[in-house]
Structure formats: structure tokens, C-alpha cells
Amino acid sequence: MPLNNRLKEYRAKINVNQTEMGSLAGVSRQTISQIERGDYSPSVTLALKIAKIFNVSVEDIFSYEEDDVNE
Fold first, then answer.
1. Which pLDDT belongs to residue 68?
2. Exposed, middle or buried by CB within 10 Å (0-12, 13-18, 19+), for 71?
3. CB 22 within 8 A of CB 16
4. What's the pLDDT at 70?
5. At residue 15, does pLDDT exceed 90?
6. What letters, b where the CB count within 10 A reaches 16 and e where it falls short, cover 20-42?
7. CB 52 within 8 A of CB 60
8. Where's the HTH cro/C1-type domain (predicted)?
9. Using CA atoms, how far apart are residues 31 and 54, in angstroms rounded to an integer?
């Protein structure tokens, strides 16, 4: 997927597990797990909530890389 994230790294910095992170962000543990694995792209609202929890910009946690479509 073109959306990469550093959520697991940031979560480790504040020493919270996926369940606790889900509670902080208002989502399930499974959603946090799917985001970390790259199986789920969060909504803009959820990405903003997550960034606010860590007091960083969305771009610090999430980065988008376009697929090469010039072939």
C-alpha cells in the first residue's frame, strides 16, 4: 500500500499497547493493528486524532508514496 506509517514506533515511545491506543483514539484494538500492518488506511479524522495524541503532525506518522504509473 502506498500509505506508510510509523504508528507502532510512536506508540512504543509513549509505552501503550494496541488496546490502550485504540481507547485513546476511539477505535478498536483491531483497527490499530490493521493500521500498523498497512491493511487499513485511516480516515483523515482518525489520522488527525492519532497525530494529536502524540502532539505531532500527521506527516510525522503517515506518509504517502504514489505508485509508479508511468509504465
1. 65
2. exposed
3. no
4. 59
5. yes
6. ebbebbebeeebbbebbeeebeb
7. no
8. 7-61
9. 18
Q: What does the H/E/C string look like for the chain?
A: CCEEECHHHHHHHCCCCHHHHHHHHCCCHHHHHHHHHCCCCCCHHHHHHHHHHHCCCHHHHEEECCCCCCC
Reported residue count of the chain is: 71
Q: Report the percent of the chain where pLDDT is more than 90.
A: 85
Instruction: Give the CA distances from residue 2 to residues 23, 38, 40, in Å, rounded to whole numbers and listed in that order.
Output: 26, 9, 11
Indicate the average pLDDT of the chain: 93
36 close to 16: Cβ distance less than 8 angstroms: no
Residue showing cell 479524522: 45
